[in-house]
Amino acid sequence: MFRRGLGTREETAVTASVFGGVHGFFHSGTWTLIEAVLVIMVVVFWAATIFWVYKDARRRIEDMMLVRAAALLGAVPPFIGPLFYMLFRPPEYLEDVRERELEIRAIETRLGGSELRCSVCGCGVEPEFLVCPVCTTKLRQACAECHKPLEAAWQVCPYCETPVTVDEPVALRGQRAGSTRRTRTRS
Fold it and tell me: Which contacts (CB < 8 Å, 24+ apart) does range 75-80 have?
């Protein structure tokens, strides 16, 4: 008679030899080495995630206590802590925040009019000042008729239509005006 399949004794022997090979592999020196390498890789990856959280938190958070707390959050629940940190971290780097604030200040300055400064000492001056109140550098010339301040490029006083004469050159940044008087009439 023809039998299909193997007998129970033969089946047990084949099964034992297959599982015996697998059992032998997991109790060999090769598997021990693979386990050690995997454990080292997991520990290195865990340390790398802690370092990444710390480094990223330093770029996003000013307070060092909060940076350390974020790094601790990245360390304590391994591999889940960095995910929590990513969900709740500040959206911008501190450098980007500072840059944006500087840009806003620059735009506000441009829109609000330029703040005038003395070319010699850098002190803030008003548009109607003829001399700097700190270093006494001549800033503008006064009109000969109405005595209102004139801009350097004006050829005629816009207030009283008097032609402008230049008495003394205006000091440039880092230089003081010379003591020589020079007169010219613009027409």
Answer: 75/46, 75/50, 78/46, 78/49, 79/45, 79/46, 79/49
124: its two tokens: 């803030």
Q: Which of 132, 137, 64, 53 is nearest to 88 (CA)?
A: 53
Q: Are the CB atoms for 142 and 150 separated by under 8 Å?
A: yes
Q: Report the distance separating Cα 101 and Cα 93, nearest Å.
A: 13
Global pTM?
0.48
| Distant-in-sequence, close-in-space partners of 155: CB < 8 Å, separation ≥ 6 | 163, 164, 186, 187
Tens-place pLDDT, residues 165-180: 766 555 544 434 444 4
Instruction: Give me the sign of the Cα torsion angle 133, 138, 140, 143.
Output: positive
Beta bridge partners of 131: 138
Q: How far apart are the first and last CA of the chain?
A: 132
H helices present in the chain, as ranges:
8-26, 29-60, 64-75, 81-88, 94-111
Tell me the helix, strand and coil percentages in the chain, rounded to 5: 50, 5, 45
* Residue 151, φ and ψ in degrees, nearest 5: -80, 155
Q: Tell me what pLDDT residue 4 has.
A: 56
Contact criterion met (CB below 8 Å) for 69 and 58:
no
